[in-house]
Amino acid sequence: RNADLQGANLLGAYLSGVDLTGANLEDARLSGADLRLAYFTGAYLRNARLNGVDLQGVDLRAAYLDGIEIEHLQSIAGADFSQVQGLSEATRAKLKSRSAAELDVWNPYT
After folding, report:
1. Which of 5, 35, 41, 93 could form a disulfide with 21, with the two C-beta atoms 3.0–4.6 Å apart?
2. Model-level pTM?
3. How far is residue 31's CA from residue 11's CA, in Å, rounded to a whole number?
4. 66-76 tens-digit pLDDT
5. DSSP tag of 64
6. DSSP string covering 71-100, please?
């Protein structure tokens, strides 16, 4: 919680279930990381790189996502994007274009 991981290199890290509520992850490199069921509630992810990550069941409520990179996501099934801030229209469209099977999954933790 509230960790300062600005600019951290977490490429390919196993972070499933980690609690990074309120963390500063500005410019962090998380590409290829396993983020399933992780908590990023209110986290600051400005310009973070999330290419190829698994966001299944991730809690991103009220996270700040301005400038994030999210190419080649493995899954967003059950991810909670409620009240996120800074999400560009292009990124929002990219998320909305995911399959109905992913978009129709409820997050039981949020």
Report:
1. 41
2. 0.91
3. 5
4. 999 999 999 99
5. B
6. TT-SB-TT-B-TT-BS--HHHHHHHHTS-H
